[in-house]
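Thread: sanity check for a docking pose with flavin-adenine dinucleotide

Original post by kr_44:
Hi all, I'm comparing my docking run against an independent structure prediction. Below are the sequence and the ligand SMILES. Could someone generate the full complex and paste the structure tokens? I mainly care about where the ligand ends up relative to the chain.
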Amino acid sequence: MDNTPFHILGAGLSGLSAATILANAGKEVHVYDVRKDSGARFDGDFQGIENWTSAPDFFDEMKQWGLKPDYFKSNSFDVVDLAHPDDVITRPKTESIAFRVVERGTDEHCIDQGMKRMAIEAGVKIHYGVRKSPDECDIIAAGPKESSAVAFGEIFHTDHPNHVTLQLNDKLAPGAYSYLIIIDGIGLICTCLWRKQKKSSRYLNETIAWYEDRYELNRKPIKRVGGKGDFSLPKKYVHKGRYYVGEAGGLQDFMWGFGMRYAITSGVLAAKGILGECNYELEIRKRLIPLVKSSATNRFLLNRIGDRGFKLAARYWMWDQKRKGDGLAFLRWLYSPGIFRKLLWPIVKLSMLKKKELPDGRVVNHMPFRKALKRDIWEQSPAALEIGKQWDRVRKSGAHLSFTESDT
Ligand SMILES: Cc1cc2nc3c(=O)[nH]c(=O)nc-3n(C[C@H](O)[C@H](O)[C@H](O)COP(=O)(O)OP(=O)(O)OC[C@H]3O[C@@H](n4cnc5c(N)ncnc54)[C@H](O)[C@@H]3O)c2cc1C
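Reply from moderator J.T.:
Ran it for you. Here is the predicted complex with flavin-adenine dinucleotide included:
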């Protein structure tokens, strides 16, 4: 038996998935992470694992691969509140599972820690706080490098029942969306900025004010969190013998930033590629790249439409649900390549993405962080100013702020 050890850079979702598959196949695997623990890039944020870009239920897919979704806490949702730009709220729903909410971070029930336990049980050796050169690694799973978009959120105590709202609103979340997630007494209100802003906390304050006005939250702030997303399409996924997975490989959802499913899937496929069970490059191009390209085309359109387009999209979503009896059908359609998106792709590539060479020699088409627009400058409402002051008080009393403008 070949006893060559495998080395993986990054103990996040993609790196740990790859490590577990390799170790389950009897390989010696070492994973290196610059941070002190898996999930330390996050701070208790809720994230949704989508169930719409591919037909099989994602947890069934994970089980088929030998991964164990019951190693971390998750809450399934089949319905959300959809807040249109004119504040109308409707309810897309499905008979199956639309998505599952998981927590990111270093607490035991977080997905990062579940994946870590799975890897360790399989025999993987994880080395935290270690800076390893990518040249010495077989799989690069080091997450995002640059910022194409950012998200800022506040985590709080609440007595509101479990709930998710998705809001399309170009003022509160420039070019993107905001969300409210409540799981077992803990809430997260987050706004995503797809245009780069100064004084970004005003977006979060105003977004919180919007949600407080509509939901009985009884909000008691705990901490503020956030992070960046890196959106780029590389020319190759295997470069100089190294396999690039997850966000380090540009495998992200350009439209919403739902990168977890791609991260785990690409980690598994890279391991299978190394084990000779598939051709990683081909498999990524067949399974994930059409989805990534569709999401990039949708992003291109979203960048152009503003609130009027968001309103039309939200209305069309509800009309489609009425017709087909399933709110997920619209989301599946958004990610299906189709002739229109295929025709648009050359324009998207030319006008939205910028070709660049990375320090490791890879050539990627990167989506730069868009500049702010004139309409992004507005005065905060009195309620938002009060929320900002409340956060200042909570922060001074020791609350944690894990992501700021300077991290972008
Ligand atoms: C605020 C926010 C909200 C999000 N919400 C969602 C959501 O709702 N749904 C969803 O699907 N996705 C969401 N995403 C995206 C999702 O988190 C990522 O796409 C996913 O975690 C990518 O997995 P990964 O394995 O590529 O990277 P990660 O899981 O981030 O892991 C990368 C690891 O590499 C380590 N690392 C970095 N540099 C080095 C280095 N030089 N050497 C060694 N190790 C290194 C890091 O410490 C980290 O542990 C969100 C992202 C953010 C920032």
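The two ends are 46 Å apart (CA to CA). Hope that helps with the comparison, let us know if your pose agrees.
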